[in-house]
Amino acid sequence: MIVSVSRSSISGTVCAPPSKSYTHRAVLITALSDSGRVHRPLISADTKATISACEAFGADVSLHGDSLEIQGVSGTPRTPENVIDVLNSGTTLRFMAAVAALTDGAVLTGDSSIRSRPNGPLLKALNDLGAEAFSIRGNDRAPLVVRGRIRGGSTSLDGSVSSQFLSALLIACPLSSGDTTISIKGELKSRPYAEITLDILREAGAEIHVDGNLFRMCGGQRYRLQEYTVPGDFSSASYPLAAAALAGSATVKGLFPSRQGDSAIVAILREMGADISWDRERGEVAVSEADLKGTEIDASLTPDLVPTLAVLGAVAEGHTVIKNAEHVRHKETDRIHAMAVELKKMGADIRERPDGLEIAGGELHGADLHGYHDHRIVMALTLAGIVAGDTRIDTAESVDVSYPGFFEDMRRLGANLSISP
Q: Which residues are 182's β-sheet partners?
């Protein structure tokens, strides 16, 4: 599908979709419990992959109104009867590979993007803890095979690639037979996502001891996550918030304080000069257009914001530097390279660095752009189209991965766009 975007003026109010990150974790941890409900989950392509995988491991998941009712596996997932296809969901792949190590084994694969993403640190850790885990092609990419069960022990993880490896182990290891110690080498990128995992696990009754980059947990634990309500998603909300800062004004509801690192979008927009306020009690963020100024942004904790920040930098006056974002190269696509290539087509003065982007702000013009089958690239380039006009972006259907209602919400705010096959 192709989305065609004309220059637009933004105004109005939308609700933030539920958090994808919280939904993945809440569904899986409830599925590993006895039974429970997850209220206001995000139902998207990625989270459907997690629901399907939970069912493959023996859980019964059904949607009733605005809640998922889950009959869980009480800490003992069954061995899947078939290959688990995670589609485009890297989170599902990593989490379920660790869950597979609580069974007699499983095979996991996904689409072409998933089959290009690295999993070496997780495979090494699962082997250290007693399972046999390997890539069929011998390159640390899916398809992955996990055989045997983790028994506990000690392992270390390279923290520079993805916090999903740690989250996967934090979910699986307390259910193994022995005690586990995990140490992180270097800086843990995207640490807020690991903190989200820890928060939900503790709400489920898990005991995990954290001392800096050292994580210790006893084996033989059981989870009891009976009720969980998913908060609004700051990653998805960054698009309407940025659109308002670029071309009008808007209020996004459902944004309450949480562990989400991408809540930093509020502070970043304020630093760049946007007129922005956050009523934390009401969960409402209001933004109005202003003359944006370039700034320097450390993206180590907020990788999903990088495409949005690149668009803001391309329009802001002066220079913007996005740094400590090398892990963004290992997402659905190399998002640093993708944004540099596509924004250059629109006339942006933008240069890749190994760990990010350098951007000299200016005017953008319309262009035909490639979305790389990547939801965040497509949504960020839509923002650029709202400013530049006369812009077409392919693979627009990929927004279903995290924000199925994105185009409808942007139209509700006044964006002039159309979708065609």
A: 155, 215
Could you tell me where the beta strands, DSSP code E, fall in 49-203?
Answer: 60-64, 67-71, 84-85, 105-109, 132-135, 144-147, 153-158, 180-185
> Mean pLDDT for each 10-residue chunk of the chain (421 residues)?
98 97 98 97 97 98 97 98 97 98 97 95 97 97 96 94 94 98 91 96 98 97 97 97 98 95 97 97 96 96 96 98 94 95 98 96 97 97 98 97 96 97 90
Residues annotated as catalytic (active site), given as ranges: 304
pTM passes above 0.85: yes
